[in-house]
C-alpha cells in the first residue's frame, strides 16, 4: 500500500520583526523553489502540532523548548497542488487545505537544515517576491509590521 500525503497542511512564516527579516528555505527537489516552513498533517495531529513538528524538523528551532509564541492566524486556504507534487497524493487529489501560522523570533536564529538545501533571511518584500507560492507570498505580505 502506498503512503500518500494527507491533503491538509500548515504554512509557518518565521520572521524577526525587529530585523524585518523572513526565513526562506530552498527545496531539495526544486532548486528554484523557495518557501517558508510547510508540511502535511499526520494522523491524529492538529494543525498546531504539525506546525511545531515541521518547524523543528526543517529548521531545528524548538518552539516548545524555547517557549516561542507560535501564532495561529485562524486562517486557511484551499489551493491547487502544484503538478510536480501531485504524485505524493492519492489519485484524484488535486486540492490541499493549508493552515497559516506565524512564528515571530526575538532574534535571527541559527538554522540547521534537514529537508532543504539552503536558507536566507530576507526582508519582507524580497521574501514575498522570491517564493513561487502565491499563498506563501500573501502570508508574508500580511505579516505584522
TrEMBL record:
UniProt GO MF annotations: bis(5'-nucleosyl)-tetraphosphatase (asymmetrical) activity; dATP diphosphatase activity; dihydroneopterin triphosphate pyrophosphohydrolase activity; metal ion binding
Keyword Transport applies: no
Keyword entries, A-Z: Hydrolase, Magnesium, Metal-binding
GO BP annotations listed: AMP biosynthetic process; ATP biosynthetic process; folic acid biosynthetic process
Taxonomy, superkingdom: Bacteria
EC annotation from Swiss-Prot or TrEMBL: 3.6.1.67
Binding locations of Mg(2+): 54, 58, 115
Record-annotated Nudix hydrolase domain positions: 5-144
One Pfam family, short name: NUDIX
Cofactors required: Mg(2+)
Binding site for substrate: 5, 27, 38, 79-82, 133
Keyword rRNA processing included in the entry's annotation: no
Root EC class: hydrolase
Cofactor note: Binds 1 Mg(2+) ion per subunit.
PANTHER family xref list: BIS(5'-NUCLEOSYL)-TETRAPHOSPHATASE [ASYMMETRICAL] (PTHR21340:SF0), DIADENOSINE 5,5-P1,P4-TETRAPHOSPHATE PYROPHOSPHOHYDROLASE MUTT (PTHR21340)
Name of the protein described by the UniProt record: Dihydroneopterin triphosphate diphosphatase
Amino acid at each position: 500500500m502506498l503512503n500518500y500525503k494527507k491533503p491538509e497542511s500548515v504554512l509557518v512564516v518565521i520572521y524577526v520583526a525587529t530585523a524585518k527579516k523572513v526565513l526562506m528555505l530552498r527545496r531539495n527537489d526544486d532548486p528554484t523553489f523557495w518557501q517558508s516552513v510547510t508540511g502535511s498533517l499526520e494522523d491524529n495531529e492538529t494543525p498546531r502540532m504539525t506546525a511545531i513538528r515541521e518547524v523543528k524538523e526543517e529548521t531545528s528551532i524548538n518552539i516548545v523548548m524555547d517557549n516561542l509564541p507560535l501564532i495561529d492566524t485562524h486562517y486557511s486556504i484551499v489551493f491547487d497542488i502544484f503538478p510536480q507534487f501531485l504524485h505524493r497524493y492519492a489519485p484524484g487529489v488535486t486540492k490541499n487545505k493549508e493552515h497559516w501560522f506565524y512564528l515571530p523570533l526575538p532574534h535571527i536564529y541559527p538554522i540547521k537544515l534537514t529537508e532543504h538545501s539552503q536558507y536566507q533571511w530576507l526582508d519582507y518584500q524580497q521574501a514575498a517576491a522570491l517564493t513561487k507560492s502565491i499563498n506563501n507570498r500573501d502570508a508574508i505580505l500580511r505579516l505584522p509590521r
